[in-house]
Amino acid sequence: MRLKDKVAIVTGASRGIGAEIASMFAAEGARVVLAARSMEEMEQLRQSISRQGGESICVSTDVRSRESMKNMVKTACDAYGAIDILVNNAGYPMFGYAVDDEDEEAEKRYEAIMETNVRGYWYGARFAVPYMKEGNRGSIINISSVRGHLGLANETAYCAAKGAVKMMTKALAVELAPYNIRVNCISPGAIQVKVGHWVLSRYGQEIYDEYVEKFRDVHLLGMECNQPLHMIGEPRDIGYTAVYLASEEARFVTGSDIVVDGGLTSLLPEPGALDMETLVALHGKQGPMNQWFQSLG
Ligand code: NAP
User: Fold this and answer.
1) 3-state secondary structure (DSSP) of residue 255
2) Residue of 97, 158, 179, 240 marked catalytic
3) How far apart are the CA of 218 and the centre of ligand 1, in A?
4) What's the topology of domain 5-190+232-265?
5) Which of 50, 58, 194, 233 has the fewest CB atoms lying closer than 10 Å?
6) Domain map of the chain by residue range?
7) 217 vs 115, 163, 169, 286, CA distance in Å?
8) pTM of the model
9) For the segment 203-260, what is each residue's pLDDT rounded down to a tens digit?
């Protein structure tokens, strides 16, 4: 077991990537503190971990609240006596507004994204680090995104937040190296989770279902054009990386950003990344072009 007897806090552990990281940590022998707002979902995860012989506790946590984050760390320490690993994963998924969109919801969402995805990560480190310093060891893993590497229209807040996470990671890595605390981040690409698409969070389930029904093909074509591995990742793809970074196997790794994105950020973008009409036109012409190449023998 690669994390035997380690104590790990995972924020955003009620579903998606965080829930998967938490159960993979438990399977590797860590005692895991599950932190999020949805207690019911976390309790189900705790029971599932327990059925598989693992150990975890749930702490109701809102990463936007300083007191709640302080309480999360204290509860972890009271329960298990130390903190070895912190995964800052809780995220407000996407933005979905033009910078000059007059809807006042845009400003509220900007604040929510910054408070959840940036300040929440900083609070996590702020309150967990004293315990890690005491133990003279630690691994902090921050979940960023490919959107912290490259920009997208209508995603200013989310891209800015994820870029900030990358730089927070590097600065913390430098600051905490003398205490044997490693700090790294993971930048996922497209990972299949139940919620998280900006159309869902802005317009609700009905419009989201209509969007998927109408434009799924365009979305998949976009992926085919822009992502070398034509598949959507799963939460466990991030989980494997988190287990590695948390384990002794990564003892010489700090300040790193591991991109898990099917090659998305390695490719020079096709026009589809900017403009879907051009993407569809491009695909229309590519078939005949390929046939022409084949006819050349
Ligand atoms: P998800 O399924 O929507 O899960 C988000 C998690 O964050 C939930 O457990 C949610 O729990 C928690 N959370 C949100 N706000 C919170 C708050 N104020 N306090 C405490 N917990 C909060 O999303 P996901 O896709 O797994 O995302 C996990 C991380 O990966 C995020 O940082 C996201 O930006 C990043 N990411 C995801 C993808 C992707 O394709 N899925 C790609 C790149 C990066 P509660 O609602 O119960 O509090």
Assistant:
1) coil
2) 158
3) 25
4) Rossmann fold (3.40.50)
5) 194
6) 5-190+232-265, 194-231+270-296
7) 34, 29, 36, 16
8) 0.91
9) 888 888 888 788 777 777 777 777 889 888 999 999 999 999 999 999 999 999 999 9
